[in-house]
Amino acid sequence: MKKLYVALVLAAALAAPAVFAQTSSGVTGVVTDSSKAVVPEARVLVVNVDNGTERSTQTNEAGYYNQPFLTPGNYRITVEKEGFKPTVRSNVRLEVNQMARLDFQLELGAVTELIEVTGSAPLLESSSSSIGQVIENKLINDLPLNGRNFVQLAILGPSVTGVGYGATGTIMSGTRPDDLRHGTEIFSNGNREQSNNFLMDGVDNNFRRNGLITFRPSVEGVSEFKIQTNLFAAEQGRKPGATVNVISKTGSNAFHGSAYEFLRNSNLDARNYFSSPQNEKPPFRQNQFGASMGGPIVRNKVFFFGN
What we know:
The chain has 307 residues and is mainly β. Helix content is 9%, strand content 37%. The protein contains 2 helices and 21 strands.
């Protein structure tokens, strides 16, 4: 058992670079002074405000910086250079697979002075031509989901129709007696339901037998996901349909969790319009209970999350 555990840990460590390549976000931009001249060798510090992790880089001779391999989340970015006032930009929200463009302008002054920008326009992604839609955690938790199937929300993306439109009785529909899993078929830009590519934290999540999703996480375990419908990056190719990239929730420096019951009951359902008034509504009872919890093990270093 101990050898198996060590092997699994090593496998996860070796897989980490591939995961980063397919789920990570990043920031890029140029640093200038008040005369629009570029500022080389300026230090750019990127801090994840949720878990305290830091990444640091420098601008090159053309004033450009690039910080890839950031997990989706909330960030604070500080730019420093001797002879200039440090500039801080807070409330930077990075979504899955987003390479945001953030330019900074430094002002002459002492390093003891500080310029902080707290309000700004939405971040632009000018470094990628991919077309897609990010479904954030609030939408996942707040929108009604019959069967608690997050894949249904993929139809919020452009040119996508979804779950329930497949042929009844097929292996993709979730209506076969031998396979009653909720359907995960989506149709992007006219492609078949087997033409999509599902990723879970950057790892291949495709069921080879029918081309659909293998592991469908609980709604409580999904942080956000992105459905891309065209012009994929090289690492996300392989299929002509949509790419659905799911990011699981993680722990942070603050404890957070939930406990829930989702209820469906025929007493709360409307009568079928075409049903005879003399017929009783067919009985239906469904109660789904669950919980989630996340938090720090060692602040700024090690975290846990489970659901």
